[in-house]
Amino acid sequence: MNKIFAILSYPNSNNLGDFIQSEAAKQYLKNKIVKQIDREQLHSYDGTKVQMFMNGWFMENPNNWPPSKKINPLFLSFHLNPTSKKKMLSQKGVNFLKKHQPIGCRDIYTQKILSDCGVETYFSSCLTLTLRRNNFVKKNTRRQGILVVSPMERLISENFSAPSFSLEKVLNKIKTFKKKRQYLKGMKRLNFFLSRQKEPVYFKSQLVDPLEFSENERSNKAIKQLRDIAKAKLLITSRIHSALPAVAFGTPVLFISDGLDHINQKSRLQGMEPFFPILNSKDLIKWTFKWPNPTKSHLPLVKKLEKKITFFIKD
Fold it and tell me: Which CATH number belongs to the domain containing residue 231 in this structure?
């Protein structure tokens, strides 16, 4: 009997990075029966038993962990959300991970947390490192321009709801003011850097409104973003899932870390240092006349990932 496979879906996500991670899984499942299951509802899946790629960020609703017994997972590129770790690493959650160990961890932070719980782990980095440029642009496509994707976007505050005149609201306004000032300073440095370059510059956002675009439309936008990354001469971003596909495509990356000081963000970067420069916007000036070279440090990780995937999908 042929295996039935599943990948994660994100019906409510505004982040194209989620869909890019699913594209990395899809490339190995051509001519296979593939289901899509909401990352936040894995616990309630009750269909035909599936073999599932468990790659990505987990999760918004930790009460919905662990997944259904109808899901046989392959843990690759797994990241544990720091704010969810307590509930996800209950005894039941840890037992589930041990049952399916070793767990391929996307970052050193996740690897350490799971190892401290007695779970067998290894550093897999991200499945998006296995993406192939030739699948998104023609082999002889010439690179052009500097692509800037969501630089320092997390410094732009979201709407905040709190009772009028509450201390929480006052503190949030102070925090918002500081972030806005930091964002404006960072963008001024970035724009100065870009003004010194001879290449055309293209700005894109990795965020898309799920109320405006369907899940399928967001998936198509993710593919379009991958094509843009594959064509660029240089990528500047503060988004991991723009940066890692760029590494896979041989596109040089400058990763700006302004606004990524919270543990939820810093944890995701641990282990990414060999792939691209991680710098504060103040340090952009150092790269004005010399861009980073594409790295090949990810290739041993890609080889290991593909070996595990080949075994997993073999009928």
Answer: 3.40.50
> Do 99 and 245 reside in the same domain of the chain?
no
Same domain membership, residue 191 and residue 113:
no
Structural domain count, the chain: 2
At 162 the pLDDT is 36
Is the same domain home to 179 and 89?
no
Query: Looking at residues 75-92, what average pLDDT do you find?
Result: 97
- Integer angstrom CA distances of residue 110 from 104, 128, 136, 286, 315: 9, 17, 31, 32, 31
Q: Give 3-state DSSP helix, strand, coil % of the chain, rounded to 5.
A: 45, 20, 40
8 A C-beta contact, residue 100 and residue 128: no
Q: Is the dihedral of CA 11, 15, 19, 21 positive or negative?
A: negative
308 in the same domain as 255: no
Distant-in-sequence, close-in-space partners of 293: CB < 8 Å, separation ≥ 6: 252
Q: What is the DSSP code (8-state) at residue 262?
A: S
Q: What is the pLDDT of residues 244-256, one digit of tens each?
A: 999 999 999 999 9
Question: CA angle, 88 as apex, 85 and 93 as ends, to 5°?
Answer: 135
Phi and psi angles of residue 289, each rounded to the nearest 5 degrees, phi first:
-115, 5
pLDDT above 70 for 48: yes
Q: What is the pLDDT of residue 157?
A: 55
Q: Domain range for residue 17?
A: 4-129+300-313
Q: Is 109 left (phi over 0), alpha (psi -120 to 50) or beta?
A: alpha
